[in-house]
Structure to design on (121 residues):
């Protein structure tokens, strides 16, 4: 009797999940809806790979996989002297977690000094 009651109580939830599955699996928002202008417009260096080089979809259309994000981050760090990537941990699924520093080449080169100055504050 108890199992029947639990099943009946969960039935509306299960049906709701199936009905809304496509909505729940889609992106929460699209970049075209968030930004007035193209977010990659302006002075984009041709020496740096674009997000579409790492994705099998347009940027902002859905969430990238951990391997796509890792590939992009590591490639960009090799392509630019304005980016420093430090792996600081791994997720429970063993994906790398990165601290990414983006600044001028001069600031990236003196990052340790900047950290020391921040600690003094």
């Amino acid at each position: 009797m108890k199992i029947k009651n639990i099943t009946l109580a969960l039935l509306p939830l299960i049906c709701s999940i199936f009905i809304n599955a496509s909505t729940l699996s889609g992106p929460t928002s699209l970049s075209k809806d968030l930004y007035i202008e193209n977010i990659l417009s302006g002075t984009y260096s041709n020496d740096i790979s674009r997000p579409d080089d790492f994705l099998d979809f347009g940027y902002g259309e859905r969430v990238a996989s951990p391997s796509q994000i890792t590939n992009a981050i590591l490639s960009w760090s090799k392509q630019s002297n304005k980016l420093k990537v430090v792996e600081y941990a791994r997720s429970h699924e063993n994906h790398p977690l990165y601290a990414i520093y983006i600044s001028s080449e001069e600031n990236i080169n003196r990052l340790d000094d900047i950290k020391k100055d921040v600690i003094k504050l």
Strands lie at 83-90, 96-102. The chain has five helices and two strands.
